[in-house]
Amino acid sequence: MRRIKRFAALCLAFCLCMAVTAVGEETAQEGSRGLLYEVSGGQADMVLLGSIHIGSEAMMPFGSGIQRAMAAADTFVYECDTAAPEALAEAQARMRRTQGTLADDLGDALYAQLTQVAKQLGLSIRVLDEYQPWAVINTLAVYATAAEMGTANAAEALSLGVERQVQAFAAAHSKPAVYLETVAEQLDMLESFSPELVLYLLQSECDVILNPSQADGLDAGIALWPTWWRDGDAAAFADNYLNHYLQTGYEEVCTEYHVTLITQRNARMAEQLDELLQTEGSYFVTVGLLHLALPEDSILTHLAKKGYTVTQITQP
């Protein structure tokens, strides 16, 4: 069975379900280590936190290491501003189809499976018909990942996402924000997926939702994500990903997804962080954790090559 490479929850801030309010500041002194890294060697102080954009109660509260780093930061840095009214308007406009239906893109068999999935999730197939395939994939991934992580519903899972928690802290302390990508850039990326990749991803999502007991590879590890994140176990995320992301028989589309979603963006984001590191200030950066955890293909690797020293902060 083909399995979705559930990259988006680990490295993409954009999400179809964007209207969930983040929960408030957590003040406990014990809690999750998270994937937290200090970058030294520049003029600025910088700490990076690897995010899972879909979360669970098991990941909360943030430990004192994360809380101290947030409190010390002057500016908070995120992948993308998905909450601004103009960003939401652009996303909603580009998600919607201008012609045809999903059945035209998917074919009768896959469309029939999608109809079954929509019924199971309590979604309207007529509503899904109004959206581009990549937006439907994104929506199904939120539902499926939330369920596999043991969170009651998609809205709760999004509110418990790491980035939402960081944003709540920053808002409570009136901290300014900087963004590494625009919504347009993230939408351009999603729209660039080849038809073969789109069909693979949508088929994979339908498979995992309709047959959850057969989950394997990356999907089989999703239930462990909260534990790995709580323990700061970057190696567990990296090993699970690197051992499974190339699906046998679908290596070309899996490579396309990896290069588009991770490799190319890592290089661009590292360049922007390099510029920030050459300024005065203190930055707390939150990006999807796969941008940080992969040993040979990460933002941290790019920064190390530029001469910075990167150290994982391991205390709770």
What do you see in this structure?
There is one protein chain. With 316 residues, the protein is α/β, with parallel strands linked by helices. The protein has one domain (8-313). Helix content is 52%, strand content 11%. The chain has helices at 8-11, 64-72, 85-95, 102-106, 108-121, 125-128, 133-148, 154-159, 162-172, 183-191, 195-210, 217-220, 225-231, 234-244, 251-277, 290-293, 299-305; strands spanning 35-40, 45-51, 75-80, 177-181, 282-288, 309-313. A six-stranded mixed beta sheet has the order 4-3-5-2-1-6, sandwiched between helices. Helix 5 packs across helix 11 and helix 15 crosses helix 17 (299-305). Residues 16-29 have low confidence and may be disordered.
**C-alpha termini separation:** 38 Å
Shape: globular
Largest sheet: 6 strands, mixed
What is the mean predicted local confidence, pLDDT? 86
Q: Order of strands across the widest beta sheet?
A: 4-3-5-2-1-6
DSSP strand tally:
6
Structural class: alpha/beta
Rounded to an integer in angstroms, the radius of gyration calculated over CA atoms is: 19 Å
Number of domains: 1
Number of contiguous helices:
17
Helical amount: 40-55%
Spans where pLDDT lies below 50 across 5 or more residues: 16-29
Beta-strand residue percentage: 5-15%
Task: Give helix and strand order, one letter per element, not per position.
Answer: HEEHEHHHHHHHEHHHHHHEHHE
